[in-house]
Write a structure and sequence with these properties.
The protein is mainly beta. It folds into three domains: 123 residues, Cupredoxins -  blue copper proteins (Immunoglobulin-like), CATH 2.60.40; 112 residues, Cupredoxins -  blue copper proteins (Immunoglobulin-like, Sandwich), CATH 2.60.40; 143 residues, Sandwich (Immunoglobulin-like). 6% of the residues lie in helices and 40% in strands. It has a seven-stranded mixed β-sheet with strand order 11-10-9-13-18-15-16, with no helix packed on it. Strands 21, 22, 24, 26, 27, 28 and 30 form a seven-stranded mixed β-sheet that branches. The longest helix has 9 residues. It is globular. It binds CU-O-CU linkage and copper (II) ion. CU-O-CU linkage binds next to strand 5 and strand 31. It comes from Roseibium sediminicola. It holds the Pfam family Cu-oxidase_3. Keywords: Metal-binding, Oxidoreductase.
């Protein structure tokens, strides 16, 4: 790593216009992803910023966003993890038509749960998100628990840079990526900054809100290695802060809220733990300012509890992909059909289907508990996301989990079976898809309906 480390700046917080709307515009912009020594990358950004501006609201608040598309192609905005009114979910082609270049769309919804969320483009996401169209969405508790300097958003994204440190735009949509682990980058930024120093205060509690906005990169984080406890996953707080040993997976779209109180003034490395520990940022500890506030756990959001005695059990089988997965798709298909699929850029199936059509995977009655048994019959990990609902992760490979935490995105390891349950209480049409965005584009996307 050349050059000197830049200090992480707080994310830019978007103010409301006079009429109460947040104004958000998708437009072309540029940034130096590699740092000051790298070239300028051509990006697609919200309000010209990387990451997109922070939208911060209070729990239960009505959120209105006047969105304008100044790109050359249609787009839409999805509010990831919000149990939202279906019309406002931002899925181009399912819940709204894509917003055409030069046009606008008003999003208007209520944010029912406090926590760490994010927003991102949801039309050709595999192309739009890894060019920069993503930003943090923070829903505050009634009383903020941390002072603003101690409530820190860390939006992690990986990028594929060429030898000049410039975003490689030529390889977008590469079929090899789609049929393997997705488009993986070779460079990591936090809030758009390469290898930053993150200022923290000695002897003071901080909240760190980690958001993985990468298109495909799974990040392994070991909070206990840097003295942090976990207080929430995917926006939903635990009952009490948890010391979690070992590596935790932060898959694409997942969030992890940590609390941390540095006891000494020494630098603390921030590392990913996939393979050898790799330092991608440094916590720089400065003098404590003002009082330390006691560690308070954010209040639990009230989510509908699944009723397992009356659950509708459904399989969600992931198949396909390289490394033998495509061969398995031969079952029930002719060679010609399989070749045609690949020519169409489809490499994966969910419950045997590679292309989403007008038929939902299932239609639930409102209030019904759905128990999904997902089976990953592929050689790759997937990050499965359900729109409009949070679910409890109950079991992995037949083993009940000690903490059946709420999530909106779960990781399914190769050959793993994961059981999740949720109450289908939000009427409308909702996607289920892999958040490795190239996988979603090449078959791993379906939908369900709540009547
Ligand atoms: Cu975060 Cu369907 O997306
Ligand atoms: Cu996937």
């Amino acid at each position: 790593m050349a050059g000197c480390a830049a200090t992480l700046l707080p994310t830019f917080s978007l103010a409301k216009a006079a009429d109460g709307f947040f104004e958000l515009t998708a437009e072309k912009g540029q940034a130096r992803l590699y740092g000051p020594d790298g070239g300028l990358s051509d990006l697609w950004l919200y309000n010209g910023r990387l990451p997109g501006p922070e939208i911060r609201v209070k729990r239960g608040e009505r959120v209105r966003v006047r969105f304008k598309n100044d790109l050359d192609e249609p787009t839409s905005v999805h509010w990831h993890g919000i149990r939202i009114d279906n019309k406002m979910d931002g899925v181009a082609g399912l819940t709204q038509p894509a917003v055409k270049p030069g046009e606008s769309f008003d999003y208007d919804f209520v944010a029912p749960d406090a926590g760490t969320y994010w927003y991102h483009a949801h039309n050709m996401s595999w192309n739009q998100v890894p060019r920069g169209l993503a930003g943090p969405l923070i829903v505050e508790e009634e009383e903020p628990l941390f002072t603003p300097e101690r409530d820190i958003i860390l939006m992690l994204s990986d990028w594929r840079l060429d030898e000049d440190g410039v975003l490689d735009t030529e390889s977008f949509g590469a079929m090899h990526d789609f049929s393997h682990a997705g488009r993986l980058g070779n460079w990591l930024t936090i809030n758009g900054i390469s290898m930053p120093e993150i200022p923290l205060q000695q002897g003071r509690w901080h909240r760190l809100r980690l958001i993985n906005s990468s298109a495909s990169r799974v990040l392994d984080i070991a909070p206990s290695r840097f003295g942090a406890k976990v207080i929430a996953l995917d926006g939903q707080p635990f009952e009490t802060p948890r010391d979690m040993d070992g590596r935790l997976r932060l898959s694409p779209a997942q969030r992890m809220d940590l609390v941390m109180r540095p006891e000494t003034a020494e630098d603390i490395p921030f590392e990913t733990m996939t393979g050898k520990p790799f330092r991608f940022a440094t916590f720089k500890i400065g003098a404590g300012q003002g009082d330390d506030l006691p560690l308070k756990q954010p209040a639990i959001n009230r989510l509908p509890e699944p009723d397992l005695t009356a659950a509708w059990e459904l399989p969600l089988v992931m198949a396909g992909g390289a490394m033998g997965g495509m061969r398995a798709l031969m079952e029930g298909r002719t060679r010609d059909e399989l070749n045609q699929m690949m020519q169409d850029g489809l490499f994966w199936t969910l419950n045997g289907k590679a292309r989403m059509d007008d038929t939902p995977m299932f239609t639930a009655k409102r209030g019904e508990t759905i128990l999904l048994e997902s089976r990953n019959d592929t050689s790759f990990a997937h990050a499965m996301h359900l729109h409009g609902h949070h679910f409890r992760v109950l079991e992995r490979n037949g083993k009940k989990l000690e903490h059946p935490d709420w999530r909106d995105t779960f990781t399914a390891e190769p050959q793993e079976t994961v059981k999740i349950a949720f109450v289908a209480d939000n009427p409308g049409k909702w996607l289920i898809h892999c958040h490795m965005l190239g996988h979603a584009a090449s078959g791993m996307m379906t939908w369900f309906e709540v009547g």
